[in-house]
Write a structure and sequence with these properties.
By secondary structure, the chain is mainly α. 57% of the residues lie in helices and 6% in strands. It contains 13 helices and four strands. The protein has a two-stranded antiparallel sheet with strand order 1-4. Strands 2-3 form a two-stranded antiparallel sheet. α4 (94-112) crosses α9 (183-204) and α11 (240-255) packs antiparallel against α13.
Length: 295
């Protein structure tokens, strides 16, 4: 790329759990999938999650900001889109358990913030079970989280605060136990699930617009997820396939003609993905999500 236009504020970067917004032209008529306007760029000064490896520095947006993104989303709730809780028994390796901890965290947010708290409770239970398997049982060992969820199940705002509390407890535990490098593994699962939820929604509601915008925004953080996965402290987790697949998604996007044309034009303010480009990218996303959730 000849220039860097995709500089986003943290609020935008946190859109790893979303894809779609409403309104706009019919993509079938234009053979283009939505537009991203990057004229109003911002800095990354608000990044909250900066942690260092001896060899690698990388930024990751915190799931702490997910709630505010979901509130403004046009993403429609569909119970068939999320990963099923009973699949948790299939995850027997540390890597699968950590990745699907992220997947189920995204699913919990998707349910709760679409006012499906009863479904969200199921994911809280699954996350609790996985935390025990990956050595983070201390985060959930007190019964207060589930009790608070049950007490406030009809109060979406209170459940959102609970989700923030879960993140803060998880982050504190990982910091205290020198496990920061594993945050990238969790986030890789959450990022993939968020992308998949957006793809699923778009394909079931094709009249919606905005998918190009959200894909472009999420691509702006994918490189940092890959850097986090490549942290030397993650050696021994058989993580090479995940790095390769996420790298393929990033490279495919960067090689799209529309993306290159955008970066080569100093006056361009909008990035437009063609339908063919979107379909190519969505297949890679669905394939990766299948690998992660199939264990």
């Amino acid at each position: 790329m000849k220039k860097s236009k995709l500089a986003y504020k943290l609020f935008t970067l946190s859109a790893a759990f979303l894809m779609l917004s409403c309104g706009g032209e019919n993509h079938d008529e234009t053979n283009e999938v939505n537009v991203v306007d990057t004229a109003g760029t911002g800095s990354d000064e608000n990044f909250e999650d900066l942690f260092e490896s001896p060899e690698i520095d990388y930024h990751l947006p915190s799931p702490l900001q997910v709630a505010s993104i979901f509130k403004k989303s046009g993403l429609s709730y569909n119970s068939d889109a999320t990963s099923k809780p009973d699949l948790v028994e299939n995850y027997t390796t540390e890597l699968n358990q950590m990745l699907n901890f992220g997947v189920y965290s995204a699913d919990m947010a998707y349910c709760v913030l679409n006012e499906q708290s009863n479904e969200g409770r199921k994911y809280l239970q699954v996350i609790t079970d996985l935390a025990e398997k990956i050595g983070m049982e201390a985060v959930f060992e007190n019964k207060d989280l589930m009790e608070r969820f049950d007490t406030n199940i009809e109060d979406k705002d209170s459940i959102e605060v609970l989700m923030i509390d879960i993140h803060e407890r998880t982050e504190m535990y990982m910091d205290e136990n020198d496990m920061q490098h594993q945050q990238a593994v969790h986030f890789a699962g959450a990022w993939t699930e968020g992308m998949y939820l957006g793809v699923y929604d778009f394909e079931n509601n094709p009249e919606k617009d905005g998918v190009g915008t959200q894909i472009a925004e999420q691509m702006s953080i994918l490189g940092n997820i890959i850097k986090g996965l490549a942290d030397p402290k993650n050696d021994g987790m058989d993580i090479e396939w995940l790095i390769a697949d996420m790298g393929s998604i990033e490279n495919t996007f960067n090689e799209f003609e529309s993306v290159n044309n955008y970066y080569e034009d100093p006056d361009a303010e909008e990035l437009v993905l063609t339908t063919v480009e979107y379909n190519t990218l969505s297949e890679l996303i669905k394939t990766l999500r299948t690998k992660i959730t199939n264990g």
